[in-house]
Design goal:
This protein has helices spanning 2-16, 118-123, 135-139, 142-153, 222-229, 239-247; strands at 37-40, 45-49, 54-63, 104-107, 130-133, 161-169, 188-195, 200-207, 219-220. The chain is an alpha+beta fold. The strands form two sheets. It has a seven-stranded antiparallel β-sheet. Strands 4-5 form a two-stranded antiparallel ribbon. The protein is globular, with a radius of gyration of 17 Å.
Length: 255
Amino acid sequence: MRKQLAVIIVIFISSSLDAGTTCGHHAMYGVPTLGDQVICRSGYLAGYSYEHMNPAYIMYYLNSVTTHSNQATRRGNGSEYKADTEIPSQYRVREGDYFGTGFDRGHLLSAASSDSTLLALRQSFLMTNIVPMNPKLNRHGAWRSLEDVERGLVSKGSSGQLIVVSGPMYGYTLGLPRLPNGTAVPSHFFKIMVELNSGIAHAYIIPNDGSALVHHPYRVAVDEIESRINADLFALLPDDIERSLESYKGLTSDI
C-alpha cells in the first residue's frame, strides 16, 4: 500500500507543478487554510497570523539542490533579522522585539536549509519566518535535530525530495502569554516532512519548553496536527491519497 501511494503521489506531483499557484513547488499540495495573509518567497510559502503576530505556518520544498548547495554563506552577506514590510505595520514584528524576553528568534525554515541562493538565505531571516522559541529547543534540542533530519532526507540525491510544513501551536488552558510587543508565545511547534518519492509523512509536535532533547518520542500522525490547529494543510491532494498520508503515524524509530 505504501509503495502504491508513493506512485500515486509522484504522478499527482508531476501533473500539478504547473497547475496553478504563484508559489511554485512550495504549494504543490495546496495553500494551507490557516493565517490572515499568504506571502510567497524564494525559499518558502508563509501564512501569517495577525492575531498572534507570528507565522501561522511555513511551507517549503526541499531537494538536494535547494539545500546543501553552499552557494550562499551567512557571514557578511546581509543575512540579518529584519521586519517584513509586506505585513501591515500594526501586526508587524520588528527585529528587536524579542530582546530581553528570554526567547530566541527561532526559524521555522532554518537558514541552513535555505542556502541555495543569497536571496533565499536572506529571506529566511525575515520575521515572518521567526517565532519565539525556547533557547534550549532552538540551539540544542529536538527542533534542531529535526532540522538536521530534513537535510539528511534530501541528501539522498535525486530521490531526496520533501514538502515540509512547520508552525506554532497554542495549547494553553489559562490565557495566551505574549511578548511586550504583542507576539504570542507558542506552547508547541509542529513539523511535517513528506517524502515525495515514498509517500511517507514524518510528523512531530514538540513542546516549546526546552524539555525535548530528541525528536523521536514526539512523533504523531498528520491528522492529529490538523485537528489541533483546525486546518487542512494539503488541500490539493485527492481525498483518498490525503487520508492515507495523514493517518500514517509510522514508528518512532523511522528517522
